[in-house]
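Researcher: I've got a protein sequence and the SMILES for flavin-adenine dinucleotide. Could you write out the 3D structure of the bound complex as structure tokens? I'd like something to compare against our soaking experiments later this week.
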Amino acid sequence: MKHSNRIDVVIIGAGIAGLVLAALLAKHSENLRIKILESNKSSITWSKSIFDKRVYAISRSSQVVFDYLGIWQDIISRRISPYRKMQIFNDSESRINFGTLNFESSEIGEPDLGNIVEDSLIKERLFNLLERLGNVSIDFNQKIELIENKDKYIEISTSSGDKFRSGLLVGADGVNSSVRSLSSIAIKRHLFDQYSIVTNIITEKPHNETAYQFFLENGPLAFLPLKDNRVSIVLSTSKEQAIHLYESSEKYFCKLLTGFSNKLLGNVLSCDSKKYFPLCSFNAKRYFVNRTVLVGDAAHSVHPLAGQGINMGITDVVILSSILKKSLSAGLDIGELRILREYQRESRSNNIKYIFAINSLYDIFKQSSNRSKLIKSLGMFTLNRSSYAKNILMSMALGNRRDAKFNFF
Ligand SMILES: Cc1cc2nc3c(=O)[nH]c(=O)nc-3n(C[C@H](O)[C@H](O)[C@H](O)COP(=O)(O)OP(=O)(O)OC[C@H]3O[C@@H](n4cnc5c(N)ncnc54)[C@H](O)[C@@H]3O)c2cc1C
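Model: Sure. Here is the predicted complex with flavin-adenine dinucleotide in place.
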């Protein structure tokens, strides 16, 4: 059994939330010793010739964080796809339909509504940055198994038999967080039984840098614009249909997407291989226990229909890193409960707003009776004519840069 030297912060999980947190902490405090433990076997590299199927709609607030870390220009120079417009369609098969919701970045004086960026590109740039930062080390193939609170420090044991002592443990280990379960932190679940299929397609007509969302009978379908006239799709549906579609032929799937999108971009000509993910929506009842905090999907998860999951996770780590920075300069022990409580107060209240909005949107569009279809259509009709309400929605999607938490750097 190996016993490593004392570390200041151990982060479990090298997803985007864990990597961004490590980078922010390392940048804020050169003397802080940070260790990331990741269960995957190695780091991730981006490929110029193959489009990653996992992409994110990166909001302006997350873009500001990447820019602060000095990796946004690297990302832009490789491949990003801005979207300047968004169109939302209510159940294309419904006869009761009063049109669409249209959003345009120019209406709020912004160059775009966000950028679609590949998962592998963001992670590759973050790994590269952490290598250069010096005070962060990453151990791959390390799965956390036991957490013991020893009052002045916390001890973490992994399945490979290693032990680490740290002043603070951060669970950034995703929806099925071991840190959350080993710390007995309960979650409040919003029930829906949905899976998402993701792949990249080529369409007959250009996407014109527009993101489309179709609210279908079984769940939403998003078309997100990529470079070279490709489109990333996220189709959320029941488990049975997701498995059926995952196994279906390319020809059948393309025909189905052509129909689902009402031929808006003409025929869907081809699609890459598909991936599917189970979806869940929850918020942890608390974000901290003794010397342990949760960030990103370990703390909360939302339906991907609004493309906010990782943006919320990045906001968590911005809040946490700024509170830790302040505490370190005041000479405080960063594992103290009052510090972790401050993080929970700031981030949980911020996330509750997003979780409520996204769940409400999902619930409204899921209603399938004729009466609710009529209410939905009338609501969309009215909303589309209210520039005030639309501006609020667009600022929320952008992450509202004027929000106080972004003065935290
Ligand atoms: C289909 C789909 C589409 C989405 N689209 C968007 C979008 O457009 N925009 C957006 O903002 N969000 C989107 N999301 C949400 C987004 O994917 C998540 O919010 C985000 O990936 C969470 O990042 P994270 O770093 O918190 O966790 P994860 O990405 O899950 O990373 C967790 C890391 O921890 C590691 N790990 C897990 N368990 C252990 C353990 N026991 N020990 C050590 N390491 C461990 C994992 O290997 C992983 O590397 C989407 C989600 C889905 C399912």
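Model: The chain has two domains: 7-48+120-190+284-366, 55-118+191-278. Residues 337-366 form the longest helix (30 residues).
Researcher: Great, I'll pass this along to the crystallography team.
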